[in-house]
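User: Could you go from structure to sequence for me? I need the amino acid at each position, not a summary. Structure tokens:
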């Protein structure tokens, strides 16, 4: 056999250089390097490979196609179809918002608050559940609690149901439009949690391209006429079904703190909590005992 002298050997170092060139304009350098490492690990099962390690043509085509998709702004989580949340790998796709670190902070704060006070919620409601991340994590944390999760999107609920089946199983899922329907739970609740749509449409121009172009606007944007409408609905409706001493825990847009205080303090004892970056990101509203 005559050797093919035109064959170019492709190595890890070549991939890193090409990928970085493709991604540097869309991502911070540190994030680009991290994504490149993820690609090598997730798609080639290579952890800290040597720069000289050779990559076959088939494997090269696989990982360069991932880079191409990333270069258009497509989130890495949608390419892999998964995201880690509270130690659990969850399925994600463009029907659901990608769970954020801030939302995991909300879960951790609620869990710590309930445990510190020796309160084990018996019935938990998660509105705007999306991937089901909060509902599932709370069911893991409080396995004896009943959990009900709602969303307006059938496609999102299908993802949440799959995720629940993988990790906890027993969660009730209901499709409901909180803005147009009256929510009546089967029993009174001890804990209501939600990460509702809270981005004002006027903020869209400042959003990263990978968020605005690919993540579901239904889960991102609040009504332009009233960016706090979801909060009004959740806080008002919970008066009818929250047990005395029950807690409502919400992820919020920091620019609406004063308005939310006015809304929530009419019926609840209100506390705001900061996220890891120091921004006021969470509202805890406790119903009087």
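Assistant: Here is the amino acid at each position, in order:
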């Amino acid at each position: 056999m005559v050797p093919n002298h035109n064959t170019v050997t492709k190595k890890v170092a070549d991939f890193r250089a090409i990928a970085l060139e493709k991604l540097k304009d869309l991502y911070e350098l540190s994030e680009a390097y991290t994504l490149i490492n993820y690609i090598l690990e997730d798609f080639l099962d290579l952890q800290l490979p040597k720069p000289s390690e050779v990559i076959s043509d088939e494997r090269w085509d696989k990982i360069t196609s991932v880079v191409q998709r990333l270069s258009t702004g497509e989130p890495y989580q949608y390419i892999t179809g998964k995201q880690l949340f509270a130690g659990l790998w969850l399925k994600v796709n463009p029907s659901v918002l990608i769970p954020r670190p801030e939302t995991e902070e909300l879960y951790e704060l609620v869990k710590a608050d309930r445990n510190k006070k020796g309160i084990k919620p018996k019935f938990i409601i998660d509105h705007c559940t999306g991937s089901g991340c909060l509902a599932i994590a709370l069911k893991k944390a409080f396995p004896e609690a009943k959990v009900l999760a709602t969303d307006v999107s059938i496609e999102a609920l299908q993802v949440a149901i799959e995720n629940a089946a993988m990790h906890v199983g027993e969660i009730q899922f209901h499709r409901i439009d909180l803005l147009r329907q009256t929510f009546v739970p089967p029993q009174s609740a001890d804990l209501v949690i939600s990460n509702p749509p809270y981005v004002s449409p006027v903020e869209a121009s400042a959003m990263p391209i990978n968020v605005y172009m690919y993540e579901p606007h239904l889960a991102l944007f609040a009504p332009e006429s009233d960016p706090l409408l979801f909060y009004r609905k959740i806080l008002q409706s919970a008066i009818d079904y929250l047990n005395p001493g029950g807690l409502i825990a919400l992820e919020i847009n920091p620019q609406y703190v004063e308005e939310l205080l006015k809304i929530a303090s009419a019926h609840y004892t209100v506390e705001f909590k900061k996220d890891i970056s120091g921004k006021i990101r969470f509202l805890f509203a406790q119903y009087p005992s």
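One structural detail worth keeping in mind: Residues 196 and 235 are 12 Å apart (CA to CA).
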